[in-house]
Specification:
- This protein has two helices and 21 strands.
- Pfam families: Por_Secre_tail.
- This is T9SS type A sorting domain-containing protein.
């Protein structure tokens, strides 16, 4: 299985069928947001990956790992990093089948405190790893490691001279299962939103509908100032349509967001934790 990234590396996977990865954002994809956190701990830099408890996916869409940088260190640092990941398909009887396994790191861009380019070859964050794996209508489990190359030469060579950091693990939940089993708040309205308070995302849930119309969302702060605008594409099943609104970019506080779907507009409030 060949995975190509438009940086400096070619990945060698466990299998021999073709797939590609690229840095450009692909429409109609399953987005898995991962945060690359760099912070200070006991006068030393620490590096880790953080993630959500679960990610919603739908079948027949490509998978994109979107790597966001959160640099909380007071130190100036240039570092060269990579990712390793494995994807397991989960069967209803609990059997796990490895369907993707990276044997050498996916090279991600060098970083430093001011987040500027380190060299002409590097890319800026967020960094998208586009993996053209065909997801089936089932659930998956992902295990991912962050690695730090010892030198720039090791990074360019994409070799095994690196330090590995603790592994993270998270599920990919197929939206059909979610639409059937989601423990969403009860409401007589056709529109409900959750969770509230929220950390990274809000689910906009339309019941009793099979029309998968795009949704226009505008977020305002508590002073009525526009913060951001979003066009969301939902996933439908079992007479419901779900949309994911990313709120990770807004500071903590209370917000209003205007939701327009077709000719109907509603306003909701949210507390960002």
């Amino acid at each position: 299985m060949k995975l190509k990234i438009f940086t400096l590396s070619t990945l060698f996977l466990f299998f021999s069928i073709k797939t590609t990865a690229q840095l450009t954002h692909a429409p109609s994809t399953n987005i898995v947001d991962i945060t690359f956190l760099i912070s200070d701990h006991h006068d030393e830099l620490t590096f880790e990956l953080t993630h959500k408890n679960e990610y919603l996916i739908s079948s027949e869409l490509d998978l994109v790992f979107r790597i966001n940088l959160d640099y909380q260190s007071v130190q100036e640092m240039v570092g060269y990093f990579g990712l390793q990941y494995k994807i397991y398909k989960l069967s209803p009887d609990g059997f796990r089948q490895l369907i993707r396994g990276v044997t050498v790191p996916v090279v991600i861009p060098p970083v430093r405190k001011n987040r500027t380019r380190v060299s002409s070859e590097s890319e800026e964050y967020p960094f998208n790893i586009y993996d053209a794996i065909v997801l089936e209508p089932t659930n998956y489990d992902v295990k991912m490691n962050l690695v730090k190359f010892h030198t720039r030469a090791d990074y360019l060579a994409n070799n095994d001279n690196y330090t590995m950091y603790p592994r993270i693990s998270f599920p990919l939940v197929h939206v059909a299962d979610l639409l059937t089993n989601r423990n969403a708040p009860d409401s007589s309205s056709s529109l409900i939103t959750y969770p509230n308070p929220s950390i990274n995302e809000v689910i906009i849930d339309y019941a009793n509908t099979t029309q998968n119309l795009p949704v226009e969302v505008v977020i305002f702060n508590d002073k009525g100032i526009k913060v951001s605008a979003h066009t969301l594409i939902g996933v439908s099943g079992n007479s419901r349509t779900l949309y994911q609104l990313n709120v990770s970019h807004v500071p903590k506080g209370m917000y209003f967001y205007q939701i327009k779907r077709g000719d109907k507009t509603e306003v909701k409030t949210i507390i960002k934790k």
